[in-house]
């Protein structure tokens, strides 16, 4: 895992979830500026969902490819990863169906 210098002398893992409160003030400002305005939230949500769905499709394809290329102990780990990716995509599809039905 890669590490990030989040504060002088303090390291945090890049793939660890970070709460809004843990962000530095400039990161909070950037986050706030990236949040869509209320009138465009439904459209932004649909767009984000479609992008995420497409991304998961690609990630799942890459996971399958890694499975074909893996052997022995690593294959078992990749197989487990692919199961998680499959379940995540199923859940994402359920969310997608609900959101796309909304006006």
What are the main properties of this structure?
67% helix, single chain, mainly alpha
User: How far is the N terminus from the C terminus?
Assistant: 41 Å
Residue-averaged pLDDT, rounded? Answer: 78
Helix content: 55-70%
Structural class: mainly alpha
Could you explain the architecture of this structure?
The protein has three helices and two strands, in the order ββααα. The chain has 103 residues and is mainly alpha-helical. A two-stranded antiparallel sheet has the order 1-2. β1 and β2 (10-13) form a beta hairpin. α2 runs antiparallel to α3. Mean pLDDT is 78; it is low at 1-6.
Short summary of the structure?
By secondary structure, the chain is mainly alpha-helical. Helices cover 67% and strands 9% of the residues. The protein is built from three helices and two strands; from the N terminus they run ββααα.
List the helices and strands and how they pair.
Layout: E1 3-7, E2 10-13, H1 25-34, H2 41-69, H3 72-101
Antiparallel strand pairs: 1-2
